[in-house]
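Ticket #4471: structure export looks truncated?
Reporter: QA, pipeline team
Priority: medium

Steps to reproduce: submit the single chain below to the structure queue and open the exported record.
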Amino acid sequence: MRRFSVIPSTLSLLLCLAACVLWIHSYWYTSSIGYEFAVEPTQARAVGLQILYARLTADCWICRFPPVERDDYIHLFNAGRTGPKFFFEHHPDQFNELTHRTMRWFKYIHGQDRPIIGPNDPLFETRRLTIPMPLVVLATALLPAIHLARRSSRRNRKQSGLCANCGYDLRATPQKCPECGTPTIPPA
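Actual output as written to the record:
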């Protein structure tokens, strides 16, 4: 049973370390990763993550257009491409300090936008969630911290003459715990 808790704790610890590195990295560089789905007859969809100035932003957008405008969308907004596309962008931070100060820590946006070119232009629907990187680091560090606390508690119980499983005093019966039946000395 203990081995099953070690694997998620280890993975969570690795995610925590990666989040710390990305948090520090985000003060100088903007990193984006995303996926654009194949263009359908009446819509195009994409999802993405962006890390900028200690904030993690998850984006999901849908572009809806009439079937007759599909080719125009592909030409104008998608560079002539109709298939799915995975993208990664990494560039130096180009915002000034005032922009960083006005950015909110927590933000959820759900909005629609239509370019002002014509009435048949595509309608962009965006959903965006921004959370602070320190919260991501704390959330990913929680499972390893719990695992470490349980492990040290178990070790302290064993060293002080208590059952490692339930904490019962084993001074009278040092071979086996009378409360839970856990053997303390491995059989020879």
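Status: closed, not a bug. The export was complete when the record was re-opened. Leaving a note from the reviewer for reference: The chain is about 35% helix and 30% strand.
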